[in-house]
Amino acid sequence: MTPLRRLAAILSLDVEGFSGLVEADETAALAAVERAYKRFVRPTVGEFGGDIFKTSGDGVLIEFGSAVNAVQWAARFQRALLADRQAHRPALPVRIGIVIGDVVVTEHDRFGEGVVLATRVQQISPAGGMAISRGVFEYLQGKTDLYFTGIGPCELKGYARHEPIWVWTPKVISASRARRIAVPDPHTQPSVAVMPFDNLSGDPGRNNFIDGMVEEVTASLARVREFLVIARQSAATYRGKSLGAKEIAAELGVRYILQGSVRFSDRRMRVSLHLVDGETALQIWSERIDAEIDDLFQVQDYIAETVSGALHPTIRRAEIERARRRPPDNLVAYDLVMQALPHLWAHRHDENDLAIGLIDEALALEPDNGRAAAIGAWAHAQHIAYNWANDIGEQRTRGRALLDRTPGRIDDDPLALTAVATATMLIEADLERANALLDRALDLDVNHAWAWTRRGFARVYAGQPDDAFACFERSLRLSPLDPFAFNSFIGIGLAHFASDRPEEAARWTRRALAEKPGMTWPHRDLAAFLGACGQEADARLALDRFTASRPGTTIATVRDALRFMNGALLDRYCAGLAAAGLVEREDIGLRAAT
């Protein structure tokens, strides 16, 4: 008889270090395992469509018809154990591995590749959390609010090829683990809870609509991987309670609280929002959104996008200020990276050097920090693109070395993916790979303004300025108050130049310079644009401002720095610089001076 085979989600569960627990206190260890099984496993798996097909001491194997159900059950189980521990009962360090695989089915058991792989993935899991395979992770997209972190290709016992693994945990991973798991730490990673919005209409019939809005806002923020978002169900337990922001933040273990209220007037609604720092109870952001409610779902989507786009830079600024206030002996790699960001986006040579120094400190503390390496590569790329480098080859070498440290460490981090995409564009001139990285970043967080800005530049460099305008406009709409928004003005200017509108290009570049006093490199753009439209006197002034701190710059060095531009655009750009008076090579300038 041909054995029955099927594709299934297989969950493997065991207790980390169980032999040691038994050796220390056999009775207590066995009692804890039996209690966990009887209270948290056997009575609950059926609710999620799970079928226990094997138990062995401290281990359990369960088949689920859905990977989503398997992950949701695992999260519920681990949170129940965590709550049990907090109730002063002995803790069980349970590991869970989940895969989608082929299994051979018998009446009382399962065999095959899926079962073996699940047990191997389980061994990678952090205690108190779960590890999942690529198949499970890809299947989960858009179907769960759980935050999984990619830890790269991992060696699995009995498998020749390393397999990419993602992990989740409801608590902080202990720093004493021999193998570091890149799970966000709420002590260093920003976190936010969206409270139930107050219904000020007096009509209980509006509650479902308001709850749906809160759910959309929470889901939208959850896609911003730079901070953690508490699940809506947890935040919903505070409905009607009179606790202050400090108390709620402390109980939920978050740093920020988003509160809101909704008023209705006929077919219009007004949503009032404010973000509160949970440590100080100070309001750090507020907004009022007015909208028609004829299309309920469209309104919910609009509000979710608006809030996500606004909170992203607001929380980033708050985290930067928080990092700046930290005493030097308390700094960690995360704080150093946050401190580096404003120096990076200052777009000045000396500031960029400071950013690189802070990144070097972060990597000294945490050599495997993929985000730090990514942002460091971006900083070195700016040295090249803005003609700050005396030795472009050296900067490319240093940037490439940092790029080599990012694979497998930034797969779930849109900011780091955007940084690597930018560095890949500017250092390697590899637009195809850069676009793939940006697509990944936007798949993770469609409201990531920086990723939209860099996608716009990639389109201009590739000779697609019409597509670029839409990217820059999307970025500015998502994050109009972002301190990096001036970069979109520069991009719009370059897109106009690529569309043969140099005067309009110059207007946008001047706007960027007004937004960011102290920058000098955009004067190179301005010189090229003014030179191209025949305004040679103004073009010469702009060129002088650019070269004042860059003696020896020539068209040849500009071509080397900007080789990521398509040939036609680069030729037109350099022709504009030549019209402004920039020499082709340094030896030509020397002959002209003698």
Automatic annotation (TrEMBL):
Q: Which SMART domains match?
A: TPR (SM00028)
Alphabetized SUPFAM superfamilies for the sequence: Nucleotide cyclase, TPR-like
GO terms, molecular function: adenylate cyclase activity
Q: Which InterPro entries match?
A: A/G_cyclase, Adenylyl/Guanylyl_Cyclase_3/4, Nucleotide_cyclase, TPR-like_helical_dom_sf, TPR_rpt
Q: Which residues form the Guanylate cyclase domain?
A: 9-122
Please list every transmembrane segment annotated in the UniProt record, as residue ranges. Answer: none
Could you provide one GO biological process annotation from this protein's UniProt record?
A: cAMP biosynthetic process
Q: What is this protein called?
A: Putative adenylate cyclase
Which branch of life, at top level?
Answer: Bacteria
Family matches, as Pfam families: Guanylate_cyc
Q: Which UniProt keywords apply?
A: TPR repeat
